[in-house]
């Protein structure tokens, strides 16, 4: 039934303007807006929908992962752009916020609405 449909994902934020600035300027994604909805144009030709929600509650899980070749360089650049990386009690990260405890190297951060995102090193 859905084998040929081009599915896409989406998530809510409490402030579309702040999301546009964060995703477009801080993260450097190509973004567009239509009818009050924000579209993140991500490589691979699959847009992600960002929609406003008055009673938005941040996701408690990672909603979007950004694979990178060099996590050290990505974390350093994002830190320069004002991104703060998360440190979780049960997942011990280094001083930069990179978790090195098994699996891919990964660092989590949040968008202005509190949704969890990550950069992870491709192997």
UniProtKB/TrEMBL annotation:
It comes from the Bacteria. SUPFAM superfamilies: Glyoxalase/Bleomycin resistance protein/Dihydroxybiphenyl dioxygenase. It holds the Pfam family Glyoxalase. Residues 5-122 form the VOC domain. GO terms for molecular function: dioxygenase activity; lyase activity. Keywords: Dioxygenase, Lyase, Oxidoreductase. This is Catechol 2,3-dioxygenase-like lactoylglutathione lyase family enzyme. The lineage of its organism: Bacteria, Bacillati, Actinomycetota, Actinomycetes, Kitasatosporales.
């Amino acid at each position: 039934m859905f084998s040929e449909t081009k599915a896409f994902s989406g998530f809510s934020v409490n402030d579309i303007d702040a999301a546009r600035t964060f995703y477009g300027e801080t993260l450097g994604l190509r973004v567009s807006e239509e009818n009050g909805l924000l579209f993140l144009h991500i490589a691979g030709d699959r847009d992600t929908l960002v929609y406003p929600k008055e009673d938005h509650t941040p996701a408690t899980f990672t909603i979007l992962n950004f694979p990178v070749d060099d996590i050290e360089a990505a974390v350093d650049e994002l830190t320069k752009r004002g991104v703060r990386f998360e440190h979780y009690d049960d997942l011990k990260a280094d001083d930069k916020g990179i978790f090195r405890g098994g699996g891919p190297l990964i660092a989590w951060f949040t968008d202005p609405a509190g949704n969890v995102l990550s950069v992870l090193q491709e192997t």
